[in-house]
Write a structure and sequence with these properties.
Elements lengths: L3 H14 L13 E6 L2 E7 L8 H6 L11 E6 L11 H8 L3 E6 L9 H8 L3 E4 L3 H7 L1 H9 L3 E9 L17 H11 L4 E5 H7 L14 E5 L10 H4 L6 E5 L5 H9 L3 E4 L6 H11 L4 E4 L3 H9 L5 E7 L27 E8 L2 E7 L9
Parallel strand pairs: 3-4, 4-5, 6-11, 6-12, 7-8, 7-11, 8-9, 9-10
Antiparallel strand pairs: 1-2, 1-3, 12-14, 13-14
Helix pairs in contact: 3-4
Length: 371
């Protein structure tokens, strides 16, 4: 039987789980709390990929305490298999805890209910589904990687009040302010890849790195059919320091691609140009990339929207107006015909950043049907 106390401790477990963001992927973020009624006994979270899981970290802090009256709250079902660490279900059973409250079942095939079954067979009372929707939102990228074998796709853009990402002459730096750009660098520092379109790479000569660096070093990816990036560009000249991938279609210049390879750029060739983006995401999923950030331009973001590939959006709106019927907007592509079909953001977060409006939220609903 659940109670207000169960809800409160699970909320706290979800809060501490997020401390692992950027450090634990492709594993999920997990938090664990051990408590007796209103008294906290111990807490732990999954801190680093390949290291101890949240339950083990929390139990390690309990010492020789008698846990027979305690409840263990965990945001994800304890694992039941030998991976990089021993099965957490067996550690929980051995601890003497008699009650476990779980937010969500683990979709990983080698777990997926087995941890719950093992604990129940050992005589532990197991309650599931407490704050399940919040747990699913927290680990939506992990769920998508497990169920679709693709990374979670984050779309980002900065625009003016009149919806422009550049003037009619192509001037685009800077639309958002310095503090907003710092938020973007924080996002870059926790994803596995930063992706831009070919025209953006040519026009902006970006570095696409995180400054300062974050817990992850994102691979920088340029989506192109016939790449023609300057060999002296920031991306090419730093490819030996931070990975760079360039896609190419079947008609791309083979000798130029060889030159890119000589500069440590990885080339991914695809036979069907119209499927480059979707095939790229499948390849990144095979590499266990969990979160990728698409920073534009309008053509690439539009293709993502047309193909229903964007899962989350981060938009920075500057209090500026530039006008111009030919000035580009952030999302190109074919677009939608009817306003009633317009894509909406769920789980919205709206914040003012030194005058800029920062809006973020989840786009897709099929991975998280309850959102």
């Amino acid at each position: 039987m659940t109670s207000e106390i169960d809800q409160r401790w699970m909320q706290y477990a979800l809060e501490i789980a997020r401390r692992g963001q950027g450090a634990v992927e492709p594993n999920p973020m997990v938090g664990c709390v051990i408590a007796v009624d209103n008294q906290l006994i111990a807490e732990g979270w999954h801190e680093q990929f390949g290291q101890a899981h949240a339950e083990v970290n929390a139990l390690a802090k309990t010492g020789e305490a008698d846990l027979s009256e305690a409840t263990l709250y965990v945001t994800l079902e304890p694992c039941a298999h030998h991976g990089k660490t021993p099965p957490c279900s067996q550690t929980v059973i051995a601890s003497g805890i008699k009650r476990v409250v779980i937010a969500m079942q683990d979709p990983f095939p080698q777990v997926d209910g087995q941890g719950i079954t093992q604990m129940r067979e050992a005589g532990i009372e197991v309650i599931t589904g407490i704050a399940q929707q919040q747990a699913e939102i927290l680990n939506a990228p992990y769920i998508k990687l497990q169920t679709e074998q693709r990374p979670w796709v984050i779309g980002k853009w900065a625009m003016t009040l009149d919806g422009k990402i550049a003037t009619h002459a192509g001037s685009s730096q800077w639309i958002s302010n310095e503090k907003s750009r710092a938020v973007v660098h924080q996002i870059r520092g926790r994803v596995d890849a930063v992706i831009v379109g070919h025209q953006t790479a040519l026009a902006d000569n970006p570095k696409l790195d995180a400054r300062p660096s974050g817990p992850r070093n994102a691979t920088r990816i340029v989506v192109a059919r016939n790449p023609a990036i300057d060999l002296g560009s920031h991306l090419v000249t730093t490819a030996d320091q931070l990975p760079v991938v360039v896609t190419a279609g079947p008609d791309a210049d083979a000798s130029y691609l060889d030159e890119l390879r000589k500069h440590s750029v990885e080339i991914l060739r695809f036979d069907h140009p119209e499927k480059i983006l979707s095939e790229l995401l499948l390849e990144l999923g095979r590499r266990d990339f969990t979160n990728v950030l698409i920073e534009g331009g309008a053509g690439l973001l539009g293709t993502c929207m047309d193909q229903n590939l964007i899962d989350e959006a981060h938009i920075f709106i500057a209090p500026k107006i530039v006008g111009g019927s030919s000035a580009p907007s952030p999302v190109g592509g074919v677009g939608l015909e009817n306003m009633e079909d317009a894509i909406e953001l769920n789980n919205q977060h709206v914040e003012m950043i030194d005058g800029d409006i920062y809006i973020s939220g989840i786009v897709r609903r099929d991975i998280l049907p309850n959102v």
